Structures are given as structure tokens and as C-alpha cells.
Amino acid sequence: MGKYEFNGNCAFAVSFGKMDINDCPFEMEVDGKNYKFSNKMVMRLCKWFPSILKKAEKNWEGATN
């Protein structure tokens, strides 16, 4: 996979405002975007509930602006 969203931080953690979890061995592509996850369970949750990734994107925008 190429470049990761959220600078490679765990997408699930970013959805809860944690921007420093970057030891993420699991990867998933959604709509052409690459995401990393700290474990398989949170990766599955993001697959089942796409609103988690939307919340992560919103949190990331707020943190980086």
C-alpha cells in the first residue's frame, strides 16, 4: 500500500481523538484511501461501521488545522 491516512496512525484511535498510536501492523483500503489499525478487531469495526472513519477524518482535520 502507498501513503496512509492520518500519517499512519490507527484510524480507530483517531476517531476517538488519539493522534499518537502509530504502531499499526494492520492495513485496509477503503474508497482508494489506505488506513492502518493497531489490531484486527478495530479494523473490522471500521469495516462494519464506516461512520468511524468519517469521524476520524473530522477529528484529524480539526487537529491539523
Would you give an account of this structure?
This protein is an alpha+beta fold. The chain has one domain. Helix content is 43%, strand content 15%. The protein has helices spanning 11-15, 40-48, 51-64; strands spanning 26-30, 33-37. Strand 1 (26-30) and strand 2 form a beta hairpin. The longest helix has 14 residues, at 51-64.
Could you write a compact summary of the structure shown?
The protein has 65 residues and is of the alpha+beta class. It has one domain (5-60).
Features of the shown structure:
65 residues; alpha+beta; two-stranded antiparallel ribbon; 3 helices; globular
Radius of gyration: 10 Å
Assess the beta-strand content as a share of residues. Answer: 15-25%
Globular, elongated, flat, extended or rod-shaped: what is the shape?
Answer: globular
Distance between the termini: 26 Å
What series of H and E elements makes up the topology?
A: HEEHH
User: Which regions have little confidence, pLDDT < 50, spanning 5+ residues?
Assistant: none
Biggest β-sheet description: 2 strands, antiparallel
Average pLDDT figure:
93
